[in-house]
Amino acid sequence: MANFKNLAKKSTVAGIATALTLSLAACSGGSSTKSASSSNSPLKIIITNGKGEIDSQFKQAAKDFMKANPKIQVEVDSIAVGDSLNIFDKLTASGKTPTLAMFSPYDALHKYKDVGIDLSKEKWNSETTDALKNSSGQVIGFPFAVEGMGLVYNQSVVEKATGGNFDPFSINTQDKLKGLLDKIKASGVQYPVAYQTETWSVANHYSSLFLDQTKNPDSILNKLKAGKLDLTKNADWNGYYNTMEILASKDYNKFGDRPLGQYYDAAHVAVGKGDSAILFNGDWAYDSLHAVAGANFGFMPVPVDNNANNPLNNKIAVGPTQVFVVNKKATAEQQKAAEKFFNWLVYEKAGQDFVVNKAQIISAFKNNPNKVTNPLGVAISNAITAGKTMPFSTNYVNTGDWTTILGPEVQKYIAKQSTKADLAKAFESYYTSHKN
Predict the structure, then answer these.
(1) Is the dihedral angle over the CA atoms 164, 168, 173, 178 positive or is it negative?
(2) In angstroms, rounded to a whole number, what is the distance separating the alpha carbons of residues 80 and 85?
(3) Are strands 316-326 and 139-154 parallel, antiparallel or unpaired?
(4) Which among 219, 271, 223, 216 has a CA at the least distance from the CA of 247?
(5) 143 in helix, strand or coil?
(6) What is the pLDDT of residue 148?
(7) For residue 51, which of 404, 344, 327, 358 has the smallest C-alpha distance?
(8) Residue 246 burial class via C-beta count within 10 angstroms: exposed 0-12, middle 13-18, buried 19 and up
(9) DSSP state of 313
(10) Phi, psi of 81 (to 5 degrees)
(11) pTM, two decimal places
(12) How far is CA 414 from the centre of its chain?
């Protein structure tokens, strides 16, 4: 992330990314946006997909939806994986009006807070606890993708080192983490960790975890904005960077001699092949891991201290990372068509199948009978069932700013070019000056 995430989620794809667009006509008539009741042409709606990795699945879903709703024409526009510019912005700049827009929860509540309509009365609200609400309590976001992040591990490598079945939630202190890494080294794996240090990973993903020290992450952010939180004295903030030092160290990290670099692909290859065992990432990483080897993978929490009873040490971050917003600038007919699409996703077998089986996304809706099959998705589902999850903290921060402004500050710390006090000052200065 979760974008990722925003998510959607991350890649080292370089160059200028272009939107992938498909206009799917359900019958002849072209691109008219008039109501079907006043024209023989279908009613056209545009859906933006912020998860480029499921572009082909989404476009097939659009075809399936149109078969069931022949009077509606659906155009799916997907962001290219790795593109930082929301496809919604590109389309609106070109004069188009998306009907359904996929945003991160943070962006839906801040940058795009004036885009959506009130969805509080929609039937599907009864099937989920993850609908996104604004400050007034109105539901403005349809939860599309539930994702999670933590320490991803190669099960076969870890179980070889531990000598049997491995309980990932047994690693609930920093000392236990170091003990596990030492066992993995003793089993013949020179570098147990492949720690990627791209700015998004070390900043808006990893560095946001400390926000979960309270039940409401916004309470920590509000203290930062008010200049009333001294991070140098915040135990959990300090603890996460102590753990980062373990993960990025020369003793354990495959990239420890040169910790800063574009290691996303190399880290996945290393853990996928079993040359390393652990990386920090989310369930969106499974495609990269699975492409290398058919091994099983799971999630461990990121321990923040040596108190085994600390809730942060016993949970992984999980939550809706992408939500759909219905554009208030769309016509009333288009908005009704968007609501039909939501109901298709939630209640129809084909829609349920698309979300979970085709896209391998954990559904936010309890009535969906399908279960994801990829191991990381299974691990998240199991953690949800066991009550071992905490909020997806990336959803509470401005991912763009955390990546471009705070990310380089975290990298300086990893490279030992600054102190923890310097890093704390950078975070505090950002929030007292940006107020977001």
Answers:
(1) positive
(2) 9
(3) antiparallel
(4) 271
(5) strand
(6) 96
(7) 358
(8) middle
(9) G
(10) -55, 130
(11) 0.85
(12) 23
Token pair, residue 387, equals: 């009550």
Six token digits for residue 326? 């219905």
Does residue 133 sit in helix, strand or coil? Answer: strand
How far apart (Å, rounded) are the C-alpha atoms in residues 162 and 271? Answer: 17
The CATH number of the domain covering residues in 20-147+319-387: 3.40.190.10
Handedness of CA 207, 209, 212, 218 (dihedral sign): positive
Cβ(180)–Cβ(161) below 8 Å = yes
Helix or strand or coil: residue 260? coil
Calpha distance 250→195 (Å, rounded): 11
C-alpha distance across the termini of the chain, in Å? 19
Q: Tell me which amino acid residue 103 is.
A: F
Distance, in Å, from the CA atom of 95 to the CA atom of 91, rounded to the nearest integer, reads: 7
DSSP-based three-state secondary structure for 171: coil
Residue 67: how many CB atoms within 10 A of its CB? 10
In the block, residue with structure tokens 């870890």:
158
Locate the domains of the chain by residue range: 20-147+319-387, 149-317+394-434
Q: What pLDDT, on a 0 to 100 scale, did the predictor assign at position 262?
A: 87
E strand or H helix that includes residue 106:
helix 105-109
| Largest Cα–Cα separation, the chain | 73
How open is the CA angle 250-256-261, to the nearest 5 degrees?
170
Q: How far apart are CA 315 and CA 168, in angstroms?
A: 10
CA distances from 423 to 238, 394, 431 (A): 10, 18, 13
Looking at 207-313, which runs of residues are DSSP E strands? 278-282, 297-300
Contact indicator for 196, 267 with CB cutoff of 8 Å? yes
pLDDT at 240: 98
Question: Within the chain, which residues score under 50 in pLDDT?
Answer: 1, 3-38
According to the model, what pLDDT value does residue 254 have? Answer: 96
Residue 418 structure tokens: 């600054």
Alpha-helical segments (H) within 258-331: 264-273, 286-292
Bridging pattern class, strands 278-282 and 43-49: unpaired
Give the number of other Cβ atoms within 10 Å of residue 336's Cβ: 15
pLDDT of residue 406: 97
The topology under which CATH files domain 149-317+394-434 is D-Maltodextrin-Binding Protein; domain 2 (3.40.190)
Nearest-angstrom CA–CA distance, 207 and 226: 20
The DSSP line for 42-101 is PEEEEEEES-GGGHHHHHHHHHHHHHH-TTEEEEEEEPPTT--S-HHHHHHHTT---SEE
Q: pLDDT (tens digit, 9 = 90+) per residue, 127-184?
A: 999 999 998 999 999 999 999 999 999 999 999 999 999 999 999 999 999 999 999 9
